[in-house]
Amino acid sequence: MVVASPRTGALSANVIDVEGRHVPVKIRHHPRARRYVLKIDPTRGEVCVTAPKRGSHTQALAFAQSHSQWIAERLAELPTTVAFCAGAEIPFQGQPHRVRHVDQKRGVIRVQPALESDGLPEILVPGDPNFLARRLTDWLRGQAKQELSLRVAHHASQLNVRPARITIRDQSSRWGSCSQTRTLSFSWRLILTPPNVLDYVAAHEVAHLVHMDHSKSFWKCLGLLYPNYRPAVKWLEEHGPALHRYG
Ligand SMILES: [Zn+2]
Asked: Whole-angstrom Cα distance, residue 37 to residue 20?
């Protein structure tokens, strides 16, 4: 993140020049921002500038342009995509696993513990190799639904509440959400995280069935339901964005 006082400059479109490449910049005006703040959204690989209330578009772009080298370095550091294919290494419940195709027409996907001391546990995917990515995604979504349903049921019983239903989605901006109609939605990618992180997100959304906001009462309720939530929040902040590169 780069923070700086406003500078002057002129650029027409919402695009800056980063080592000869045209890179789009998202500009947001924030009433409480005092300075220009530059960030890279690692999920989308976007350059974002938060501008103070009185800041101008032109200054925001000039500010980003003046840090083009910093932007180039951050963009180069972004992780590359990991496709779901045989041989891929993907996290499952927080542990790295190797995806392996098994030459069987039928059968279910299963997890096999590491056979050698230095090897990885494997996710064995039978069936047509052309459909491996699809089958693996469906399986991960199913596993996510199963685990999240269990944890939601546990937390909901503690608070004596009940969600209307649980849906699993591929939302990039949120790990979970709670609607006015009491539907809890979760990202399937939570199955990639360590179990305590998935559990925290389940508890967080269940607490929204009692408090629909992020008020003090909400955090108090969550603190009673899931006392050790801080490490999970921190884990998501640090490692969450990188999970979007899988699949
Ligand atoms: Zn929330």
From this structure: 23
